[in-house]
Structure formats: structure tokens, C-alpha cells
Amino acid sequence: xxxxxxxxxxxxxxxxNKKKNKVKSVLExxxxxxxxxxxxxxxxxxxxxxxxxxxxxxxxxVLGVMLHQLGKQKEACGVLKKYLxxxxxxxxxWLNLGLxxxxxxxxxxxxxxxxxxxxxxxxxxxxxxxxxxAMIELQRYQEAERxxxxxxxxxxxxxxxxxxxxxxxxMQNDFDSAIxxxxxxxxxxxxxxxxxxxxxxxLSVQGDMEKAMTCYVRASKLNPKYPSVYLNIAKAGKLAxxxxxxxxAMSIALDQKLDPLSRSSVLFAIGIALDAAKSFEEAFSxxxxxxxLMRSQIQYDETLELGKIDAVMSTFTDQDFSRxxxxxxxxxxxxxxxxxxxxxxxxxxxxxxxxKDVYGAGERREIKEFADEVRYPESIENIPITKIESLRKRxxxxxxxxxxxKLRYTDxxxxxxxxxxxxxxxxxxxxxxxxxxxxxDTCLSCYMQQFNAGVGFSFNLEELGRYYRKYLEIMDFWxxxxxxxxxxxxxxxxxxxxxxxxxxxxxxxxLVWERSMLEHxxxxxxxxxxxxxxxxxxxxxxxxxxxRSYETHLGPLFEAxxxxxx
Length: 566
Prior knowledge:
Elements: H1 2-6, H2 11-14, H3 21-35, H4 39-52, H5 59-69, H6 73-86, H7 91-103, H8 107-120, H9 125-137, H10 141-154, H11 159-171, H12 175-188, H13 193-205, H14 209-222, H15 227-235, H16 244-253, H17 260-276, H18 280-297, H19 302-316, E1 334-339, H20 345-353, E2 358-360, H21 366-373, H22 385-403, E3 408-411, H23 420-426, E4 431-436, H24 439-447, H25 461-481, E5 486-490, H26 491-496, H27 498-508, H28 555-561
Parallel strand pairs: 1-3, 1-4, 2-3, 4-5
Helix pairs in contact: 3-4, 4-5, 5-6, 5-7, 6-7, 7-8, 7-9, 8-9, 9-10, 10-11, 11-12, 12-13, 13-14, 14-15, 15-17, 16-17, 17-18, 19-25, 24-25, 25-28
């Protein structure tokens, strides 16, 4: 944004009133001072001029922009507001005010300013581009998409707009459109290595690994020191030990000056490559260092997080769910898939989504958002029926828009296990599938994955073990509260007896079993999880008892899990 605003200081943009040479002279002098680094004198000159001539066009606008450049956002906002009271038809000033408000986090108010700018400058693509940014911050992605299409209609070669459109499409789970937008963006921004990496990731979500690798390699050639791309290459199984890409990654990993999160990405990438090469001792060293770096960078309060699970169990210990009356509007469509991360939830969803009547919606945020909205668990008993029906309707409408004519849809946010009571409150006839896997395999798989800060328990073996114990405790609690309502599916059983287990899944979900459920790897759909590459392979057994290759390093995990190891 600063680069765009800085262009407002060019002489050709400010000498708009040739009849008033004095005004022009003041503006030019202030801009020269500002560009030469004497910002205080530039500001002082314009403040004096603006106070003397508040009705003079450009004084207030340029002063507001300069204050913004100096990080004085509130002052800049005040100056522009005062200026616009006198010059309400200055579209550029409304645009600048909206941008400054965005910097202040006032995105909704900024939209109003962008709207005014759009009325005054309807052919200015910058207005629609920046309005889309505010909409993204407000998570109103459909409106952001409309803004970007308006921007591109005016300027079809706006590379940044294509890039942002790809992001917006991705956030709406529309990867076909995202890939088309990325393709256009790379034509306009061929040297943007991060764009090529993002393009590759979108292609991998759709299962086109050959084209994804082409993008990753392009990104690595444009910037051999870009850490993120090596992790994506490693996850695609293409970071072969000893290859040139591997050597590049290793050189980055040794750079102590690299920021910790980026260095952690490369360490995870090398760990994955060494694991694939069966160099387990070396691999664990890299995974361990990567996790230590991640843990040093995040704020994870174990007492608080485990306490949240305890609070849920405490709240519902004496509660009787049978008193909740199902609404006639309650849907039987939702299938919720819960469990620990890396426990097989993606595989189960892929199997179900291979059925002609099931739409796989991936990891959804709505249930967690609803829980926050109703202050779950402490206020769950006081939710009015009208609120329950409202939340149910919002969720159902959104999911039905995604699933189209499909009879059922899956929501596979693993840690929805916290919200089982809320799920059954909203959808008394919902199906809940609990994915289980050997505790040590589950925890080790988490430890080998660079999750974001929201999975803060995964970066320390002892914290992982204690979190796993607490998760099993609450699942045992739910099983007793809702007997025969939650189906346990064990990863090991699914691998060993795929046909019979998929039939169990179909029966539980009131589906007629289909052979396509055995050929889940052939199903074409977007998979936006850490397991996106694995679910496109036939079921394999190499992930069972994987932990034994690392057994000598897992003492802290064994101790934390205690008698929960089976």
C-alpha cells in the first residue's frame, strides 16, 4: 500500500492547479523535502499551509498521505476526514482514507470509503482492488471476488489482482477457479517465486502433482533460498536425499541467520526426505530441531488448553441430553469426522466422498465459531431455541450450497471432538465418526508435521502425550454420554480389512455401500489438509507401527502416554 501512496508525491500528480503557482510551489517544496528525508519540515510546511488554506485542494490529501507514510495513522485519518468535509468529491482522498483505516484495522468503515471512491472513480481498478482487501479481512470472500472481477474487467493485466483472486477462490474451496487465476497471475508476474509456490500447492490440492512439481521447481530456481517451497517438494515425495534440491535445502537449514519459522520449514522438509530414505536417526534429529524452533516461537499454555477439555467434561457431567427436543428442521445430512490430527480423518473423508451421495467439505471452521458465539460450554444450557435454529440454518445453508444435490456432506475438522454436545444440539441425527490410530503412531506423525500455532501441543513430545491422554479422556466421556451414537473407526482395522470397514461406514451413515469406496484414491476432489498426497494413494500399510523406527528417541512420549499405549 505504501508504494501506491508514494506515487501520489510525484510532481505530475500534484500540480493540478496551474493558476495557483503558490499552491503548486508549496506542494512541490514539501514533496522534495519529504523525498529527500527531511520529513519533519515537509509535514510542518503542509500543516501550516493546510491550516491557512483548508479549502485548497491537495493540501489535506497530501498531508494525510505523508502522515500515513510516517506511521501516524490516526493523525492522517483525522486530516483526511477534515479535508473530505470540504472536498467530498475527491475520489483519491476517499481511497487514501480507506487504505489508512485498513491499516488501523477499521475494515468495515474502510469499505464505506472505498464505496465513495468507487462512485467518484468508477474506472479506477485500484479502488476495487483495495476494497477486495478489506473484504478479505472481513472474511466476506464472495464480495471480495466480485471486487476483483470488477478490477480485472477494467485492467485485465493486473497481476496482483489475479493473484488475490486465486487466494479468494482458494478460501472458498474453489480450486478449479483458483488454478485458472494462478495461471493468469503467473503470466503477469512470472518472477514471483511465492506465487509459483502457491500455484503448485493449489495444483497439489487437486491432485495434479506433475504440474505442481513444475511450479515448485520454478519457484526454487527463481529463489533457491526460499524455505517454504522445499517443504512442499518434500511432502510431494520429491526431495530426494543427495539431489540438488536437497543440497539447497540443507544449505538453508544451516543458515543460523534465517528466521526461526522459515528455518523450521526447511528442517521439517529435510526430515521428511531422510525418513523417506529410511535414514531414521538423521531424520529424527532434523524433526527434533524443527519442533524445538517451532515451540520457541509459539505461545502454548498447556494448563489452559487441557483445562478447556476438563471444563467441557465438568459442564456436562450431570447434564441430561434427552431433554433437548429435535426440531423438525434438523438435518440428517451432516457427517462429522473427529479425532486427533494425523489419525486417519482425511482417509475416512476421502472414502466417504468417493460415494456418489456424499460431498467431502474438508475441515470446516463453523462449529468452532458457533461454540465461541454461544460461549460454549458454560452457556450452552441457556441457548434459546431460536438461536439453535438460527445456527442450524446458517450451517445447513452454507453446506448445502457447497454440496449441491448430494444427500450427505462431511465436516472433518478433527478437533470438533470438543463440541460433540453442541453438534448433537444442533443436529440430533448427525453421524459422528471417531478416527483412532495407535497413540504413538499418531503422536509421532504429528511431530513430523509443521502445523500452525493452533496445534501448539504438537511441538513437544511430552506435551503431545499429555494432550493425547486428555483427548482420549473426553472421547471416552462422550461415548458414555451418547452410547452407540459415535462410530469408532481404527486406522489399523481400516487398512487390514478395508472392505468390511468401509461397509461399516456406509451402514452407519445410512448409505448403500459402493465399490467406489474401495477406490478412494481415484476420486477427484480438493483435499486441503496435510494428508492430501496420502489419500490419493491406494491404502498402504507402511504407516502402521512406523514409530518403531524411532523408538529409541520416544522416551518422553512413552512416559507422557503412560498406560494409554496399547
